[in-house]
Specification:
This protein is α/β, with parallel strands linked by helices. The protein is built from twelve helices and ten strands. The mean pLDDT is 94.
């Protein structure tokens, strides 16, 4: 089991292939002692990205307590979701909420800076210019080193990238999206955009709420599509002598080199299974079998664009290899 590292987006920051999500920290099964064991096991395996959020209950405070090797980690948190539902300015991507949320996160995490600050979700009511400038100010103040955005349409991220370039502001280095064998909508626009712009992709929900790992705890009544995908994952895992968890995570990595699975665990014993997925290579035949179990149609526009790209009527008879 060898953890490898990639660069975060177009930066020089080295990040492990698998990210650790800590949304469960502070929950019923993951108290301080277990959280410490999880972080240590992940670090010992070579992992260095730990992801939390201002809206994850006690996660930030607990992580601040157990993250004793702070400088060895790329510590990531998020802002945007409501800090106080009774306060109209207690949520959003505007400057006031960013400042107050970040200051609270730094106190909880017991640090003077975070390595990566995510916009937790696109705020339709705040101009992107305001969010980007406020993020850039936090970077220039040394409170934040890199920035990213979660749960946003491709056109929003693309526009933000152009604005940051034009204004010489800190650009987004990564996007965070839900992605797994069953839920592949990001392949329509977000994933191609990230690849074209050189952004890293933190993929959460890689186990399909546990269904692809063989659990239905969070999905009491899986759909026929989910059941078919889970059965295919289990069959491939048996054939390779590994676990469904490893196969489900490895599939996301096989789809794109930009993808970093972001996986949460409840116990330290689960860490090895998650990290081992970094070494698992799915043969093309097995990958095709998995995808056949849960067919995905990119849609009419994608089909039209693919046909146009291959049509002599559009670009002539010459074969253009592009940049390789």
């Amino acid at each position: 089991m060898t953890m490898r590292y990639r660069l975060l987006g177009r930066t020089g920051l080295r990040v492990s292939e698998v990210f650790l999500g800590t949304m469960t920290f502070g929950g019923p099964s993951t108290g301080a002692e277990e959280a410490r064991r999880i972080v240590d096991a992940y670090a010992d395996a070579g992992g260095n990205v730990v992801d939390t959020a201002s809206a994850y209950g006690d996660s930030e405070a607990l992580l601040g307590e157990v993250l004793t090797r702070r400088d060895r980690f790329v510590l990531a948190t998020k802002f945007t979701l409501s800090r106080d539902r009774s306060d109209p300015n207690g949520a959003g991507g505007h400057r006031k909420n960013l400042r107050l949320s970040l200051e609270r996160s730094l106190r909880r995490l017991r640090t003077d800076h975070v390595d990566l600050l995510w916009v937790h979700t696109w705020d339709r009511h705040t101009p992107m210019e305001e969010t980007l400038r406020a993020l850039d100010d936090a970077v220039r103040a040394g409170q934040v080193l890199y920035v990213g955005i979660s749960d946003a349409p491709a056109w929003v991220v693309s526009r933000a990238d152009a604005l940051a370039e034009w204004r010489a502001w800190t650009p987004f280095a990564a996007v965070q999206v839900p992605y797994n064998l069953v839920d592949r909508d990001v392949e329509r626009e977000v994933l191609p955009m990230a690849e074209a712009l050189g952004l890293s992709v933190a993929a959460f929900g890689t186990l399909g709420h546990g269904v692809l790992a063989g659990s239905t705890g969070r999905v009491p009544q899986p759909t026929a599509r989910q059941r078919a995908a889970a059965a295919a994952v289990r069959a491939v895992a048996d054939e390779l002598g590994t676990t469904p968890t490893g196969v489900a995570i490895a599939w996301t990595r096989a789809r794109s080199a930009a993808v970093h699975p972001l996986v949460g665990v409840r116990t330290a014993d689960q860490v090895a299974d998650v990290v081992a997925a970094a070494d698992l290579v799915l043969p093309d035949e097995l990958r095709a079998r998995l995808e056949a179990a849960a067919p995905f149609e990119p849609g009419p526009l994608a089909d039209f664009m693919a046909e146009s790209a291959a049509s002599p009527f559009v670009f002539g008879d010459a074969e253009v290899l592009g940049r390789r």
